[in-house]
Amino acid sequence: MLDAPLPQPRVVFLGPLDSLLWDRKTVRQIFDFDYVWEVYKPEHLRKWGYYVLPVFYGDRFIARVDSRLEKGIWTIARWWWEPGVQLNAGLLDELRIAIEHFLQYLRAGGISLEEGIDGVVRETVLRGLST
């Protein structure tokens, strides 16, 4: 298995309770990613949002997404790229695929993007909806 080629990187939306995130100190040391699930914090103490999902690609965390599912519509309220992320066609193609799969997982009938969403993310979502 050590000689097998690496699989193609893919984008994954991680749930706040995913076992990868359990040991915050190790996640910070290995990935330089500090994550706190802020659902139980008072709103004025939240840095990111109520239910922010980490976004993983290849071998690193690349973003955070603050979103919600209401009445069958997945709304992306905010999106933050992690520092140093290099956007390229491969990453954006995988992001489009991950969004399509996440919509299916949620059994969502559509997606909505709030004002101020990163233009690259907006374009990627809209391109995915038109294919």
Overall mean pLDDT: 92
Total beta strands: 5
Q: Can you tell me the CATH topology? A: Aminopeptidase
Provide the domain count: 1
Measured by DSSP, the beta-strand proportion falls in 25-35%
Taking Cα atoms only, what radius of gyration do you get, to the nearest Å?
15 Å
Going by CATH, the architecture would be 3-Layer(aba) Sandwich
Low-confidence stretches: none
- The assigned structural class equals alpha+beta
Q: For the terminal residues, how far apart are their CA atoms?
A: 36 Å
Lateral arrangement of strands in the main beta sheet: 1-2-3-4-5
**CATH level 1 name:** Alpha Beta
Helix content: 25-40%
Succession of helices and strands: EHEEEHEH
Largest sheet: 5 strands, mixed
How would you concisely characterize the structure shown here?
The protein is an alpha+beta fold and 131 residues long.
Secondary structure layout plus pairing:
Layout: E1 11-13, H1 24-31, E2 52-57, E3 60-70, E4 73-81, H2 89-106, E5 110-113, H3 119-129
Parallel strand pairs: 4-5
Antiparallel strand pairs: 1-2, 2-3, 3-4
Helix pairs in contact: 2-3
